[in-house]
Design goal:
Elements lengths: L2 H9 L4 H25 L6 H26 L4 E4 L4 E5 L5 E5 L7 H13 L4 H32 L4 E4 L2 E4 H38 L2
Antiparallel strand pairs: 1-2, 2-3, 4-5
Helix pairs in contact: 2-4, 3-5, 4-5, 5-6
Length: about 210
């Protein structure tokens, strides 16, 4: 397939959905590997600032998750602030726990969202408010994720399944599969909203000018 035929395919309105999804996947995968490389370099040259943002992000999501569990869901939780640990009694009388490590902060997903939305085309007058709104949604999605990981351990403490060649317990099922998929599903749905409500209408408006 020649470069001209690829350009023609991308410009064809009939292929717009396929091209948009392909660009979304390309940007998501690209950022993942760029982030891993940057992480290996200690986030050079702003490593200190990233570390500070990471600590701030962990503290924020920890406080928010504790508030949701305690004030909204009325779960009797025990916390150790120094470890960012949240625990509750599970249905078998044992303990369910989550520790909010730096990797659990929203910072990577914020960067993911910024990378995606700054590069993906669309009207900047709407990006100016849609991007910050997405950052807020991502933060609270992370709160839901952390609360969900704890609550799955409270309600179903003894899940043990064999998946992809691994023995998976309740924590790993919730953390590595259920809520990781949920997190990126929310990002995908926000992107779909952007494409359908802002990007595609802006293209149609340009065609009628």
């Amino acid at each position: 397939m020649s470069l001209d035929s690829i350009k023609a395919y991308c410009k064809n309105p009939k292929n717009r959905s396929t091209v948009n999804v392909g660009l979304f996947i390309l940007l998501i995968i690209s950022f993942h590997f760029l982030y891993l490389g940057w992480q290996a370099l200690g986030y050079w040259p702003i490593g200190k600032w990233i570390d500070m943002l990471m600590v701030w992000s962990v503290d924020m999501v920890y406080s928010q998750a504790c508030w949701v569990l305690d004030k909204l869901l009325h779960i009797d939780i025990t916390t150790i602030d120094a470890r960012r640990l949240i625990s509750a009694i599970n249905h078998d009388g044992g303990w369910a726990s989550v520790i909010i490590a730096p990797e659990c902060a929203s910072l990577k997903q914020w960067m993911h969202w910024l990378f995606l939305m700054l590069i993906f085309p669309g009207p900047w007058k709407h990006k100016a408010w849609f991007i910050p709104a997405g950052l807020v949604i991502i933060e609270w999605t992370n709160v839901v994720r952390i609360c969900g990981v704890l609550l799955m351990q409270v309600v179903w403490p003894n899940i043990h399944i064999h998946l992809f060649g691994n023995d998976i317990n309740t924590f790993h099922l919730a953390h590595d599969y259920v809520f990781k998929v949920f997190f990126y599903l929310i990002i995908f749905l926000m992107w779909v909203l952007w494409v359908e409500k802002f990007y595609n209408p802006s293209l149609k408006a340009k065609q009628h000018e």
